[in-house]
Amino acid sequence: MLIAHPQSMHFDAALPLQSGASIRDYHLSYETYGTLNAAKSNAVLICHALNASHHVAGVYEGQPKSEGWWDNMIGPGKPVDTNKFFVIGVNNLGSCFGSTGPMHTHPDTGQVYGADFPVVTVEDWVNAQARLLDALGIDTLAAVMGGSLGGMQTLSWTLQYPQRVKHAVVVASAPNLNAENIAFNEVARRAIVTDPDFHNGHFYAHGVVPKRGLRIARMIGHITYLSDDVMNDKFGRKLRDAVTSTQAERDYKFSTQDVEFEIESYLRYQGDKFSEYFDANTYLLITRALDYFDPARAHGGNLTRALAHTQSKFLLVSFTTDWRFSPARSREIVKALVDNRREVSYAEIDAPHGHDAFLLDDPRYLALVRSYFESKIGVGL
Amino acid sequence: MLIAHPQSMHFDAALPLQSGASIRDYHLSYETYGTLNAAKSNAVLICHALNASHHVAGVYEGQPKSEGWWDNMIGPGKPVDTNKFFVIGVNNLGSCFGSTGPMHTHPDTGQVYGADFPVVTVEDWVNAQARLLDALGIDTLAAVMGGSLGGMQTLSWTLQYPQRVKHAVVVASAPNLNAENIAFNEVARRAIVTDPDFHNGHFYAHGVVPKRGLRIARMIGHITYLSDDVMNDKFGRKLRDAVTSTQAERDYKFSTQDVEFEIESYLRYQGDKFSEYFDANTYLLITRALDYFDPARAHGGNLTRALAHTQSKFLLVSFTTDWRFSPARSREIVKALVDNRREVSYAEIDAPHGHDAFLLDDPRYLALVRSYFESKIGVGL
User: d(Cα A311, Cα A295) in Å, to the nearest integer?
Assistant: First the structure.
């Protein structure tokens, strides 16, 4: 079993942010797995999505259930094989899992940041990650890899540091959010900021947490992560506490507030759990980073022109039932790369699980990534 | 211009409800358009969906902008022609537009119902509508017609009163909600009931309204009413207050709470407007009626068996981009009717507008309904 060791790196120097603000005296939590070779040519950076962290793979000593969020993908003998690659997971700025975020102290004021934490973008995260790599003495990455929002960071790496990325693995991602994606983010944010316990983002000082808003945000999120099909298969119209799986086994309760259907119970449980550990300001920051990401924007909306400066090779993966970041969105990226004559592999995996599929054990998906890393990514050993 | 005259009918006798409870001393608001013929054979009942009322067609005297919610469909010379048909719109029990609902007084207690208003189902509404028709001296309906939740009532009419319905026009509907539909309803309800101003459904006494929850509920609703395509066409990633329509014309504000995108502005506006007039308890009741509707449930989930007792002729209409009640759901009903050798016409309209299409001016859709009413529905004049 791979044992993970969380580490932290402090940065004194101010990091200029896309907004014009900057952040100084911050730290990044990270983990590494495997061994950096002498040529420093086998490093793989993993970028995380909304609800994840630097703890990508393995478990913590004595905590057998503490698997990293991409432990099925990364580890000894896994598709991204830590016997061969030196894998780095890093928690992004503004997150709530270790790196400097809204619950930490602002060095200028001595107060908790709260809502005053600066707005961070995908580009800012990539710059912060690049500084971490500098500190680790790694100039060039064998690969950057991420799913969803992590895929956006991966794509941004190829634009911000084209010469530092040999391969980019972009899974279940998109070149930007569409109106519906932004809409769901906005509803979630409104639920949080209109929760009276939010206190304009300074709830820490009040000893409360805007749990009502976080619950709603998470419930909305969960609906968009799952496909219609998998929701119907898993929950359908099944009643909670039905005597048997036959839905007609018990009568309706005829209540507007009691849990009646299994899907309600599932969503409430997910919402409750999330509201216990996730930071409300982080939720706002990360969904906004999603909204803002749009590399084509500076090129009049032309993604092909936006990707003209990439130098990496690409693997893109999408999932047929993902309606959050549909295959069509991945194909936009593929087309723009092909237009630029970049070397790009693309796979559309026929998986039933919707957006969540990128985290799950689909054998074709895992085999595909394994094959790409084995056959395409040289580490100059 | 058709001038509408709202009316109200009082009912002393208790109406038994599906839950086992009953409701007495209630009234129903309704409107009629056109003239009932001597044979009383030209009556058409219109059933409404979540956010609508008995005010189906025409305008109120001196209020030229007060068009009924289906005014493009119903009126003199319109697809459902009130020169020929006697059209009845009725507001459902538990609604907040005139008929007895949660903001009215419970005759047993003298207190406002609030959360004590009984849970009502599609079947209960149909029974209440049937009593209204009894009082109007109408035994048989030339047609019952409705979209979305109104389509469910229409379908239920053909099951509860098979001999009283000659034709059933079921638009953009479904034989029940799927897990995702229930999930969206549940998130909206949780937003309402966890709003501190909800006061367990007795907010009237506190002089407040759970507007935060209603706003969130409405924003979620709006996302599900629109197709992805129409949202991208109408809003896309356009910034609010951009100097021109070119999105790059102004810079991002880099704020998590300010309105940045047009879609955010639209949703906030819709949410605010809705929270000013819609009743929170009504929202819970109506979404629950949607959840509960499932005529196949008493037949082990077999819709064909459930529809075996229908005697009406059917027109079903769905819209290609409706992801709330997709064409596949309408086809389930069509299949079950065909299995039972019922006379059924079905049209899948290629419209971009999603679920909302059933209220909009699609020429093929309006022409189809016109043609059905002109050629198929005899009124025995």
Answer: 16
Q: What's the rounded mean pLDDT across residues A108-116?
A: 96
User: Helix, strand, coil % (nearest 5) of chain A?
Assistant: 40, 15, 40
Tokens standing for A73?
């993908």
How many Cβ atoms are within 10 Å of A184's Cβ, its own excluded? 21
Cα-based distances in Å from B340 to B119, B168, B174: 32, 15, 18
| Residue A355 appears among annotated catalytic residues | yes
Q: How many residues does chain A have?
A: 381
* Segment A240-248 mean pLDDT: 63
Q: Is-contact B319 B308, C-beta < 8 A?
A: no
- Span B125-147, average pLDDT: 98
Q: Where are any strands of DSSP class E within A196-284? A: none
B284: three-class secondary structure by DSSP: helix
**Integer angstrom CA distances of residue A296 from A333, A350, B23, B140, B358:** 11, 28, 59, 61, 36
Q: Which residue has the tokens 């899948």?
A: B348
State the smallest CA–CA distance between residue A226 and chain B in angstroms: 9
Residue B3 pairs with which residues in a beta bridge?
Answer: B59
Residue from A254, A258, A292, A356 to probe the interface with B (highest B Cβ count within 10 Å):
A254
- Give A88's strand partners: A32, A45
Task: State how far the alpha carbon of A222 is from the alpha carbons of B228, B264, B272, B287, in Å.
Answer: 18, 20, 25, 20
Query: Is B289:B241 a contact under the CB 8 Å cutoff?
Result: no
Please state the pTM of the whole predicted model. 0.96
**B272/A contact by beta carbon, under 8 A:** no
Give yes or no for residue B36 having a pLDDT over 90.
yes
